[in-house]
Every structure is written in C-alpha cells, then in structure tokens.
Amino acid sequence: MMNQELMSFINEIRPLDAAAMEAARKHLNSLTKPPGSLGKLEEIAVQAAGITGEIAADVSKRAVIVMAGDHGVCEEGVSAFPAEVTPQMVLNFLAGGAAVNVLARGTGADVFCVDMGVNAELAHPSLLSYKTRKGTANMTKGPAMTREEAVAAIRGGFELAGKLAVDGYRMLATGEMGIGNTTASAAICAVLGGMSVDEAVGLGTGIPEERRLHKVDVVHRAIACNAPNPADPVDVLAKVGGLEIAGLVGVILGAAANRCLVVIDGFISSAAALVAASIAPGAAAFMMGSHLSQEQGHRRLLQRIGLSPMIHLDMRLGEGTGAVLGFHFVDAAIAVMREMATFESAGVSRG
Predict the structure, then answer these.
(1) Is there a catalytic annotation at residue 319?
(2) How does pLDDT run across 39-74, given as a tens digit for each residue?
(3) How many domains does the chain have?
(4) Per the residue annotation, which of 22, 121, 319, 339 is the catalytic one?
(5) Where are the alpha helices (DSSP H) in 98-242?
(6) Which CATH number goes with the domain that contains 17?
C-alpha cells in the first residue's frame, strides 16, 4: 500500500540514540534533587537527548510551520466561520498579527506559513507554497483528494522539514489553518483512532451542540461514501483528510528523518501525527505532545499515538499556539541539564 517514495521517507528514520538517553538519565540522577522529582521535564530531557544524540542539545533555532488549506466539506455547514477566513488568516500570519505570531516571538521562534491548498490565489514574499490543488473536494460526495495529491502534500512537508534542518533548525512546531479541518480530523480519528464518530467530533471553532450533531452526520456520510481503509493510512488521509493535514504528516516524518524535535499542537496536528505514526511507527519517538485541547476526541487521540501533553490550558485555537508554548518546557528541561549543580559539584550529601 506504501509507494516507493513514502518507503524512502520511512527508511530515513532511525531509532533514538539509546546511549545518549542513558547518559541523560545518569546526569539527571546526579543533580541536586530526588530522582525523578522534576517529572515530565526529566522525560523531555531524556527524549531530547535521544533525538539529538546530545545530553543538552542547542535547540535555540526553532520554527513553527503553519500549513494552510481549504476543505470542500465546508459546503455542508460544519463550521461557525466561512471558508474565506482561511486566506484572510494566511495574510494575518504573514503580517505577524495572529496569536501564533505573538506566542512565537516570546520563544524566539520563526513562523513559516505554507499554502498547501488554499482555495485562493495568494502572493506574498514570505509565503511558501506547496499547493497541489485549491482546496479539497467535498468528502461527503467522494474522496477529498486523490492518493497522488495526498502523497504530493506529504512530500512537500517532508522537503520543507529537510530544508529547515539544513538551515540549522532543530525544533519544529506543527501548526495549521483551514476552516473545516476539525471535521476532516474527526473523520481521520474515527477511522484510524479507534473511536466512534460521536466521540471524535467536537465543537470546532465554537459551533452549538445542534450543529455538532449535524457535523457527526456529515462525518458518518463521508466515511460511508468513501469507505477509507484503516489498514492504509494514506488511503484514509486522501479520502477524508486535508491538504494541510497531509503537509503536516510530511513535516513530522521529515523532522524524524532529520533528528529534529517536533512538538505537536492540538487536535488537527495530532490527527496528522496519528497518520504519520501509522505510516512510520518510528516517527512517534520524535514527537512531543504540547497541550490537551478542548476538542473532546483529543485526549484519546494522544493516547492512541502514545503522547502525553505538557499543559492543559483549555485552548482550541490551533495555528500551533499550544506547540509554541511547549517550547518553553523543552527550554526548561534543557536548562536543567546544562545549569543545575550535581551533588558532587555542590557538596550536597545524597539521600
């Protein structure tokens, strides 16, 4: 079911550096604290060592990748916002005025906005484009895109992650913009995530419960119409996914192949992470969960991938906002590794 190109991506992913992880654990246990007392920060430090091969890697050059794409399923009235908001928000990202831009500035992260499939002609000197088509088709009437288009979008994300790694970026955050993309993500979760459609469908941009029930019906119809194969994640992505989701799948696979930390944002990014982990199980080791979204299916989705969120702030914006906040915790974990005294250096008696 995997084409040769995707297999080549998978083959570039290598296991975490076990020796570096063991060295990180030993160093943490030598610091002036009870063993394991910094909890999740210690887990982050060990994982970062395994990814980079360094006990306290320099991940100060970091990026937020905001993938944008439109969804034909918006014809079914699944969102509180009209589809034209997608290109409008892309321009807002490029102007530096969105929430993710504000939060990224606080972490020293660069924001890269990518047109993966916006249903508009966009031109801006800072806009990156890997567009294969102008938005997906209405998935209640047929596949959202062809398999070839899904693979092309994955390729675009993979290439972008590789270019950023060559430029010295060592930590990436996944972000997205696309009116209707919680509907596509819920469909992916229902097929790949082992949950019912009702469990997977949430309130998205803030629709009322009666609209949510309509959204449940839309996802049911999309799955019935397309019969996506749960044993073939690319088939699922193509039939009920989105172009920006496919792009994020590529980013995640590319981050893993280039041994970069990739911090996963909320529900939509986690749907992409589930597809990436289904394509290449080894990619999950390079992912860090950032926050627990208000989308009701997000907790089970994270559990399915094996991710544990760092924070729970009742957020549901997307864009990469939660992932950017996760950068602060990675920085804290690495600072502990670099700056904290050992029992020996501080002259403190061990327990």
Answers:
(1) yes
(2) 999 999 999 999 999 999 999 999 999 999 999 999
(3) 2
(4) 319
(5) 99-105, 147-166, 181-192, 197-200, 209-226, 233-240
(6) 1.10.1610.10
